[in-house]
Amino acid sequence: MTAQDICRSPGYLPAPALFLNTFSAQEGQQVLFRCSIDQQTPATRIVFCKDGVEVYSLKAQQAELIYPMLLNVTRGSSGTYTCGYQHRNESNWVRSSALSASRNLTVTGETWHWGTGRHRSRPP
């Protein structure tokens, strides 16, 4: 099973929780996503999804419960985000979690022009 599969067809292990430090950001800013898994959950891989497609994954570490993803915001960053995890056992079988509750990120219409020190609204 691939990470993209978990984003489109999650499994049955308990869902993690997804936290964002903001739900609205401007281009050029950074948003911190945190995927939190249960202490009793055996995870080998953490996956972050946007609109049903993998955008980032990382290897799980033993005793680690919170996994971060730092997103540099662009126009295309608006969307619905979830996270999940996978567990590969000693027989190489992969089981996937249910996905976290979804979180929406909105990119606002103003951008900062560093050279001019001015804001301008992005055209619709």
TrEMBL record:
State the SUPFAM superfamilies in the record: Immunoglobulin
What is the protein name stated in its UniProt record?
Ig-like domain-containing protein
Taxonomy, superkingdom: Eukaryota
The species is Mycteria americana (Wood stork)
* Source lineage: Eukaryota, Metazoa, Chordata, Craniata, Vertebrata
The UniProt entry, under PROSITE patterns, shows: IG_LIKE
Q: Where is the Ig-like domain?
A: 10-100
